Amino acid sequence: MWGSHMLGGQFVTLLIMAVALGMDAFSLGIGIGLRGIRWNHMIRLSTIIGIFHIIMPLGGMYAGGFVSGLLGHVATAAAGVLLVLLGGHMIYSSLRGEDAQTFDHRTIWGTLLFALGVSADSFSVGVTLGMFAADLLLTVLLFGFFGSMMSIIGLLLGQRVSHKLGGYGEACGGAVLLVFGLLFIF
Q: N or C: which end of the chain has fewer CB within 10 A?
C-alpha cells in the first residue's frame, strides 16, 4: 500500500514536470505553426522532439544518479537550485520574446537542432530526477509522450492563434519548474 502511494505521488509529479517541459515544445511549435508547416514535416518534427525528450532526460538521470552518489544530501538542494534556474530562464526568455527559430525546420539538420533546443531542458531536469532516483521508465515515457504531443498541438494551434500565446506557454512551463525547484529547496 505504501509503495503504491509513493508511486502515485511520483506519477503526478512526473506528469506535471512532463507537461511543464512540453510547454517549451508547445510554445515554439506555435511559432512554427504560424509560419506554416506541412503535415509530414509536422509529424517528423514532433516525433523527433519526442525521441529527444526520451534521450535527454535519460542521459540526465544517469548523470544525476552518479552525482547523487557523490554529493549525498547536498544533491537535493542542488537539484532544487537547478530547477529554479531553469524555470527562471524559461520565464525570462518568454518575457524577452526571444525568437528560437533561426534555422529552417524543414531540413533534417534544422529539425534535429530544433528538437535538441527544446529538449535541452529535459536533460537538466533528468539530472535532478536522477538525484531522487525517480522511476526511469515512467519518466522517459511521460517526457517523450508529452514532448511529442505538445509540440504537435502547438504546431496545429499555431496555425490558428496569435504569437503571444506561445510566450505565455513557455512562461507557464517555467513557472511550474520554478515552483518545483523551490519545493525541493525548502
A: N
In sign, the C-alpha dihedral spanning 116, 120, 129, 148 is negative
Segments forming the whole domain that contains residue 31: 2-185
Instruction: Provide the pLDDT for residue 102.
Output: 44
Task: Provide the domain count of the chain.
Answer: 1
76, 184 contact by CB (below 8 A): yes
Rounded distance between C-alpha atoms, residue 135 and residue 27, angstroms: 27
Q: Read off the C-alpha cell for 102.
A: 533561426
Instruction: Check the CA dihedral 155-161-164-170 and report its sign.
Output: negative
Q: How far apart are the first and last CA of the chain?
A: 27
What are the pLDDT digits (tens) for 83-123?
A: 788 778 777 877 776 544 445 667 888 788 778 777 777 88
> What is the per-residue pLDDT across 144-174, written as a single tens digit (0 to 9) for each?
999 999 999 988 887 776 445 555 666 766 6
C-alpha span between 80 and 103 (Å, rounded): 33
Q: How far apart are alpha carbons 115 and 36 in whole angstroms?
A: 18
Determine the residue type at 130: G
